[in-house]
Amino acid sequence: MFKKECVKLGIAPIAWTNDDMPELGSENTFEQCISEMALAGFTGTELGNKYPRDVSKLKKALSLRNMEVASAWFSAFLTTMPLEETEQEFIKHRDFLYEMGAKVIVVSEQGHSIQKENISVLDHKPVFNKEDWEKLTKGLNKLGELAQEKEMDIVFHHHMGTGIQTTDDIDKLMSQTDPSLVYLLFDTGHLYFSGEDPLAVLKRYLPRIKHVHLKDVRLDIASRVKQAGLSFLDAVKEGVFTVPGDGDFDFEPVFKWLADSDYRGWLLVEAEQDPAKANPLEYAQIARKYIKHKAGI
Length: 297
Fold this sequence. Notes:
The protein is an alpha/beta fold and 297 residues long. It has helices at residues 30-40, 55-63, 83-99, 130-148, 167-176, 188-193, 198-205, 219-228, 232-238, 252-260, 280-295, and strands spanning 7-11, 44-46, 68-71, 73-76, 104-109, 153-157, 182-187, 209-214, 216-217, 241-242, 265-269. Its cofactor is glutathione; Co(2+); Mn(2+).
C-alpha cells in the first residue's frame, strides 16, 4: 500500500470547534484540540480560528505534541472582488503558512457561495457565468504563481454550496487553469454528498491532486437534507458528515488508487460534526483505526 515516507496523516480542528458556527465546540480550547489529535495518532493539522497566529507560539505548541501544520483554508472572492484585493490577503496567508512549513495552500472560491445562507444547499447551487469563469481561472493562475514564489502550491477545494461542486465543475476548472499552477484538493465527502462519484474524479485527476480530505457521509441524513431542503450548515448540525469508517462511503478503492500512484502529501481527516453529539477524540480514534486497517498506515 502506501509508502510511509510519502504520506502524512492529519486531522482538521473543525470536529472540535467550527469556525462557521462558533457555538459548536465553543468550550473546546486550542490546546485540547491539538492534544487530542496527537493522542489519537495524528501528526498534522489544518488551522482553525482558535489557533494562535504568532508563529513561534504555534510552532512550540505543535512541536510539544509532535504535530505540524498541513495547510489552511483561504477564502477567495475572485468572481466578486477585484483580483488585487484577493492577492493582498492571499500573500499574508501564504507567508504565514510558509513560516509554519506548509507546502500547499487550500483555496476555495467563496464568490456567490451559499454555504452560510439559510437555503437548500442541494437545490440552489451557484452557477458561474462566462465572466465569472474568466475571473476565477485567471485569478487562480495568479495565486498559483504567488504560491510558487515560496515553492508552495495552491490546491483548489471543490465544496458544497459553491460554484465548484460537481464533477462537471471540476472538469471545467481543471481544463481552464494551468496544470503547472493550479492543483486539486480531493475531498471524498463533498463529492459523495453532492451525488458524484469520488473515485472517478480521483482517477481522472491523480496527477493534479496534491492534498486529500477524508470525509465520510451518512446517506440517510443526506437524503433527509435533500427532502427537507436544509442548508449546508443545518446539514452539518444534523450530522451529514462523519469520519472515515463511520459513514457509507467505501474508502478502500481510494486508498488503493492513491497508494498505487505514489501519491505524496497529506491524508487529512476532515469531518465537521457537533462535538456535543460526536465526541471529537472518540471519532478521531475511529478514523485513525479505520485508516490503519484499510490503508496500512
